[in-house]
Write a structure and sequence with these properties.
This protein is of the alpha/beta class. It folds into three domains: 255 residues, Rossmann fold (3-Layer(aba) Sandwich); 127 residues, Luciferase, domain 3 (Roll), CATH 2.30.38.10; 105 residues, ANL, C-terminal domain (GMP Synthetase, Chain A, domain 3, 2-Layer Sandwich). It has 15 helices and 27 strands. The chain is globular.
Length: 544
Amino acid sequence: MPITDLLERNRKLYGEEVSLVELNPEIQESPRVTWREYELIQPTSAQPYRREITWRVFDEKANRVANMLLSRGIRKGQKVAILLMNCLEWLPIYFGVLKTGAVAVPLNFRYTAEEIEYCLKLADADVLFFGPEFIGRVEDIVPKIGADRVLFYVGDHCPSFAEGYHEAVANSSSASPKVLVEDTDEAAIYYSSGTTGFPKAILLDHTALMQSARMEAIHHETTHSDVFLCIPPLYHTGAKMHWFGSLYTGSRAVLLKGSKPKAILDAIDMERCTIVWLLVPWCQDLLIALDKGELSLEGRNMDQLRLMHIGAQPVPPSLVKHWLSYFPNHKYDTNYGLSESTGPGCVHLGMGNIHKVGAIGIPGYGWKCKIVDEQDVPVKQGDVGELCVKGPGVMRCYYHDPKATAETIIDGWLHTGDMAMQDEDGFIFLVDRKKDVIITGGENIYPVQIENFLSANPKIHDVAVIGLPDPRLGEIAAAIIQLKAGAEATEEEINTYCLDLPRYKRPRKIIFADVPRNPTGKIEKPKLRQMYCGVRLVEAQNKA
C-alpha cells in the first residue's frame, strides 16, 4: 500500500492522540492562541516554545495541502519541492504532496541559491514551499525560476514574490482528496551527490517508502507507546525514514530544533522520549557535558529511554562504550544506508549485536548484500570489495540521468561505492570509500566544489581536498595546497579566503605541499590519504 495510507489509518485508529510535537529551546515564550482552528498549540510559561498536533489534525492539514495543490492544477507525477527547517508544517506538507499523487522533492537547507535553482530545474519542480530562513536565497533566483513555478511561503510576513501558505490552505477542504495512489507510483526525489559537485536526483516510489517504514519498526521494535526524538533535518532520508517507524506504529515523535546537549536531555525528560537517533558529534558533546559536570542525569526522567542509535558516519566503538557507562541498560544500533537505498537500514548492526560495534552489521529486513570485485564477482569472505545491496528500497533511478543509473544499478543490485569486508560471522565492516565524498557530522562534502573554489585564488597553483579522521565529526575536510612558484600564503590567509564558503564546506585543516597527479592528470587521492591520514588517525585515536 502507499505510504499515505498509514496516515489515514492513524487518523482512524488514534485520531485524538498526539502525532507530532515541535520544540524550540531558543524561544522561551509560547504562543497563547491558536494560529488556525485546525492547529493545536499548547502554551506554557516555564517551557520552551512548543506546539503539537494530533493524528487527526495531521491528516486534515495534509488534506488541505493536497486539495489546495489540486485546485492549482497539480496532478499525479508532477514535482513539488520543500525547502524548510524542521517545523510542525513540514510533514503535513510532504504528505499533502503525496496525497495528490505528485512527487515530493525535499531540499537541503544548506543549499546556496545556485544549488536551489539547479535542483528545482533538475527535478522539473512546478511548486516550491519555503520558509523564512530562505527568503534571500529564493529571491535571488526568482527572475530565473519565478515565472514557471508557484512559490508558497511558510511563515509570517509573506514576501511580495510569493503566496502565503497559511492563507492558501486555510479555505481548502480537509476531506481526503480521493486521488488513487498506488504502490508503484513515484513518491519522492531526494538529492545526493558523488564527487563531481552538483547533486543527483534520486527517484523513489511508494514501495520503497513503505519498505523503509516497515523495516524501521521491525529493526527497532517500535511500538505504539514509543516516543521518537527527531533532531536531524527532515529533508534528509535518515531523519525522515527513521520517523517512518513512528508513522508505521502510530506513535508520537518530537521534532527538536537544535542539538545542544541540554536541549536533548531536556526534550527526553519533558517528552518522555524512548528512542533517540544521534549523530556522532551530538553524542560526543552530550557525553563531554556529563563528564565535566555541566549536565547531570539526576532528577531527570531517563528510565523510559530504551534505545540510542547512530547512523550517517562511522561510529567509534569507544563512543558506544562511553555512552553505556551512563546508560548501561540501553539498547544500541548502528544503521547504514544511502539515499539510493531509501535511507538507513539496508545494513544494520542489530540491537542484540553490541559486541560487534565497529561493524555496520548484517543485511537489513528485506535486503540482500554482496561484496564484489571490479569484475562484479563476489569476493571471498574476509576479502575487500565493493558493497552492493538489493531489496525493495532500491531507488527507481537517477532522475534524468540514465547513464549514472546504469552504472549504479546492475541486475537489480545497487553498487554503493563503499569498500567493505565480511567477517567469519557474516558482519560487514566498511574499509574505505570508493568515492571521494567526505562525511563530516553526517553531512556530505564534495571535494570538487571546494577545490574549484580554492583554485580561483591567484596564489594557488593546484589543490586537492581529502577527508581526515576526526573523533567528533567522523571526518574533516583537509586542503592540500600547492602554491604558485614564488607565491607565499599563510593558513590564516587561506581560512579568511574560505569565509565565502558555507561554514560546513570550509576546510578544517590546511596543508601546504605538492599535489600529486597521475599520468592522465587525475589527483592521486589514495596517495594523499596514505600520506596524511595515518598521522591524523593517531591524533584522533589519542583524543578519543
